């Protein structure tokens, strides 16, 4: 018999434990046993909440994806010049990444071995395309440089933003959320060069 | 008895097979058995060349690190304004990353579980600091913006450059090496915004 704590978990708190374990061990390397130990509840208690680890993965990456797609529905992402909308979206991407750090980290590490992972990759690609469309529109308006191909620029900008999950620590003494979002917005649009 | 191909390996070709396996399975997940199968030679033949998998890791990350540190000794990295030297180094980092793609990919995935991995992480930090110093010097000369903290800017620029290993495929129909290096140099220094 597993000696388990009284199950005071909600699907939400169980999810937060699962995401932490997935990020530490990798999704493939995580068993229900690992989740049970980390949560301090029995496997059967976990099965009371979810059908299995893939459901937890689905919920976790959905949270990250909903946060990202939600940006595109916000007023400043829909109204105004394409360049202004793009700048808004870039800044909000950083904010969502920092607000949902473990969930976005997991999303970015998904590799495509299961249906849920393939679905998440497909949704990420959709989001990338939406941002690339915005970049294309801003270039057509003459607000964004045209000497860097749109897909390549999108990849490099996403590369900069997504790399934040590798080093950002919310409890650290380093840069705060606002500082990171400002830095990304400045570098992505203005680059390093001092304004002439 | 292992039925092995005749051992026509040199330390160099064995290294290239090992790096591929490390990148696919992760260093921790790779056994001498995996290396033996991938190389098509017996384990004892591998031991003829190297003391074990950690020596292969050491050689592989050394190759990436030597490539990166070598940049700093090149004339254009030593002579000229700090901003021009920084721009040269950024472009050369992309070129070295693309030329030594599997080796740099492995270097960037090193986690710090063994002495060799910890040594590699320490050397990466040294390199980051050298580039951060250049950025600081360029800011002091007034050529680089000062409203983004130097370490944060360095992290974001490295994030953009290092993300290339996630999607660049040498044999692909996508952007070529020159196009990627140009794109990074333009975005890092000038940003997305069209020149007024």
Give an overview of the whole structure:
- The structure is a homodimer.
- With about 200 residues, chain A is mainly alpha-helical.
- The first copy, chain A, folds into 2 domains: about 10-50, Arc Repressor Mutant, subunit A; about 60-190, Tetracycline Repressor, domain 2 (Orthogonal Bundle).
- Chain A contains 11 helices and no strands.
- The first copy, chain A, has helices spanning about 10-25, 30-40, 45-50, 55-75, 75-80, 80-100, 100-110, 115-140, 150-160, 165, 175-190.
- Chain A is elongated, with a radius of gyration of 19 Å.
- The mean pLDDT of chain A is about 95.
Question: What's the short story on this structure?
Answer:
The first copy, chain A, is mostly helical. Helix content of chain A is 71%, strand content 0%.
N- to C-terminal distance of chain A: 71 Å
Of all chain pairs, the largest interface belongs to:
A-B, 45 and 45 residues
- Give the helix proportion of chain A (percent range): over 70%
Q: Order of SSEs of chain A, N→C?
A: HHHHHHHHHHH
* Total number of helices of chain A: 11
Give the biggest beta sheet of chain A. none
Mean pLDDT of chain A: 93
Assembly type of the chains comes to homodimer
- Uncertain stretches of 5 or more adjacent residues of chain A: none
Which structural class do the helices and strands of chain A define?
mainly alpha
The CATH topology of the largest domain in chain A turns out to be Tetracycline Repressor, domain 2
Instruction: Please name the fourth-level CATH homologous superfamily of the largest domain in chain A.
Output: Tetracycline Repressor, domain 2
Named at the architecture level, the CATH assignment of the largest domain in chain A is: Orthogonal Bundle
Protein name (chains A, B): TetR family transcriptional regulator
InterPro entries (chains A, B): Homeodomain-like_sf (IPR009057), HTH-type_TetR-like_transc_reg (IPR050109), HTH_TetR (IPR001647), KstR2_TetR_C (IPR041490), Tet_transcr_reg_TetR-rel_C_sf (IPR036271)
GO molecular function, one term (chains A, B): transcription cis-regulatory region binding
Keywords (chains A, B): DNA-binding, Transcription, Transcription regulation
